[in-house]
Amino acid sequence: MNITDVRVRKMTKEGKMKAVVSITIDDEFVVHDIKVVEGDKGLFIAMPSRKAADGEYRDIAHPINSGTRNNIQQIVLEAYEKALLEPEAE
């Protein structure tokens, strides 16, 4: 699996959520609404989720193993850090 495109939308409001990201996998499959979140131990990603009837949030797309999750997180956070260096569009 190769992540072939990453699109970062930075958040302008203060808060824990820093950006919303879309990734393209193998130029064939897109996952939208991956969140970049500031936690107690630094930045991490939260996969797209939906609120269930019981009030819990459940991922609607997520990696099956920790190696894949770490790979996606590394690529997304690198793209986010790069986006921080770009000037704001007006």
From TrEMBL:
<dbReference type="InterPro" id="IPR007170">
    <property type="entry name" value="SpoVG"/>
</dbReference>
<protein>
    <recommendedName>
        <fullName>Putative septation protein SpoVG</fullName>
    </recommendedName>
</protein>
<keyword id="KW-0132">Cell division</keyword>
<keyword id="KW-0717">Septation</keyword>
<dbReference type="Pfam" id="PF04026">
    <property type="entry name" value="SpoVG"/>
</dbReference>
<dbReference type="InterPro" id="IPR036751">
    <property type="entry name" value="SpoVG_sf"/>
</dbReference>
<keyword id="KW-0131">Cell cycle</keyword>
<comment type="function">
    <text>Could be involved in septation.</text>
</comment>
<dbReference type="GO" id="GO:0030435">
    <property type="term" value="P:sporulation resulting in formation of a cellular spore"/>
</dbReference>
<comment type="similarity">
    <text>Belongs to the SpoVG family.</text>
</comment>
<dbReference type="GO" id="GO:0000917">
    <property type="term" value="P:division septum assembly"/>
</dbReference>
